[in-house]
procollagen-proline 3-dioxygenase (Anser cygnoides), 680 residues
Amino acid sequence: GEASEGLRPVLVPVLHLPGPRRPPRWACPARGPPEPPPAAGPSSSSSSSSSSSSSAARPWPRCRPSASSSSSSSSPPGAAAASPSPSRLVPYDLLRRSLDRVLQRADCLQHCLGSRLGAAPSAHRASHAVRRDFERREPYNYLQVAFFQLKKLDQAVSAAHTFFVANPQHLQMREDIEKYRRMSGVKSDNFRDLEAAPHWVRAGVQHYNADEYLQAVDRLEESLREALSALEECRALCEGPLEEEEEEEEEEMQPAHYIQVLKCRQQCVLEIATKPGRISATEDFIPSHLDLLQFAYDQVGNQALAAECAASYLLFYPTDEPVLEKMKQYQTELGEDTTVTAREVVTTPGLYFLALPCPMQQDPRSRRQKGKHLNADVSCSSLSVLTSPTGPLPFEGITVTMDSRQMNGTHRVVFDRVLTESECKDLLRLTKAAGGTGDGYRARRSPHTPHERFEGLTVLKAMQLAQNGDVDWRDAKLLLQASEKSRKIIESYFTPGKKLHFSFTHLVCRTAVEEEQEGRMDLSHPVHADNCLLDPEGKECWKEPPAYVYRDYSGILYLNDDFQGGGLFFTEMDAVTVTAKVRPKCGRLVAFSSGKENPHGVWAVSRGRRCAIALWYTHSQEHAEQVKASFLVIQGQRQELEEEPGDVQEQGLSHIQEFKKEKSLNFLGACKLQNLEIGM
Ligand SMILES: O=C(O)CCC(=O)C(=O)O
Ligand SMILES: [Fe+2]
């Protein structure tokens, strides 16, 4: 109907590289196919404006299309000097040289940004230049020549046409195109734009636009599959040991393959150069398809698949209001106990590909045997390094500030705005009131360093304090709520569909002991991993007691920033090479997997008091903390519990029994929470 018409997602089905079609500036005219006989092909000599003395000897474009040169129509001196002798000028050489330039830039950029060495200025220039090359479709200019040399006329024509589409004012190419048109053996359908969306993209969209949703879903699914495998191939190409292999197999290299490599590289460069959160139009292909599919499935009455698409879409745009709204609606329609899961797509902002089962241990030689047809194993091997699996975040307003990639590791993330300023204030009040009541941490005042005082408070302790009237019930409850909120965020981000239980929750403050700061060299918290015993010398981490081996994920929710020092940092297994830093502040939640992949420590707090809620989670029900149960018991409200979904209910009830036995506390009179809702 009308209303749903209005909600139709805007279409952005672009797989090719986008870019403004502003007229490019040209340093040199592109040259047509080399052999001059007019009958054989477009002439390269007739309209040459070059004054270079060596032009007659060189059958190739005299000037390499250059992103930076804009003033001269003669050969840049550097380029001329670097030119191989005419006899060596086979198409591949030339093509390669132009590609190498781009590839070098890409590598440089990757390296530059990767190591975060004053990345901004040069890296961004490079990225613009690379981008410009692609916007201008420069490589196609070379390709047409290469194909022409190879006597692959149809491909030469489509390369020329593809270039011309983006450069309609290019006189030389216009002439060449005219010549191609007159050549026998050239068919009109050779004038194809190789950068245009492929047929399988258009078909789905056409059906969609014609409101033919049944056909649309089939075609869109097909299109999505194609796109995912294309992307995957790209990743493999981008990350594989490309140059080496090509060096050996140069003879066999096909120009089309170069183009593919180039595009892939370009995509990687863009991904890396793309600011966090900004998703380029190329990358928009998948979410936009998911968006269309969601609507189409909805229209054909398949709510389950529509919901699945919405959930998948939210992996890319976790805060998209209309889709979040839709999601809620689907959840209601499908029933709350139906779990809606996203498709097997993993993503970080700006980086995604299919989560295939990875043949991790594959012999690298197998790739070589398969020659240039790079396979999933290449991208798989990088999967664990480059990506974090993410699900939609269950709360609005929370942002992902840094992901694994930005933190140079695996399963690391920083969320912001998990708490408001006023919630931080309330929780800090709780720490004040609780101060001096013992550290809740094996009762040691300074477990890590004599230069700081360490205070801690568990949830249970907070509840008991509230019961005794030592702290405000609402503050105690807020501690529980903040913990549960963090749990939900971390669960949905790292392990959607797989329950994470509390393992231990601890509100901790580290206070600098003023007279103990001079010449201090130690850390507030030495480098460690949370579920294994780190051995930096042996670069190992022993997953055995007394380590808390059952801890699967760790979270630290920070409450303040008015102190000196106290930054969290991650290291390599050597415990000294810092790979990422996190500055604490109110509402910031850092989360990471608890294993050897995430050694971390805290720099000395040299002034003031640093407070945070440290949270550990486990998949193991056996090791689940009884926070929720204790909360319910304190309320004395079994009935609340009975409204919980099945598994929580069961778990809660059995924990109540245990809890009562263990603590032999009489909670019946402790019903102060009765009027406070449990709602998280
Ligand atoms: O407070 C922090 O930032 C980290 C604390 C930590 O790593 C721990 O308690 O295990
Ligand atoms: Fe830790």
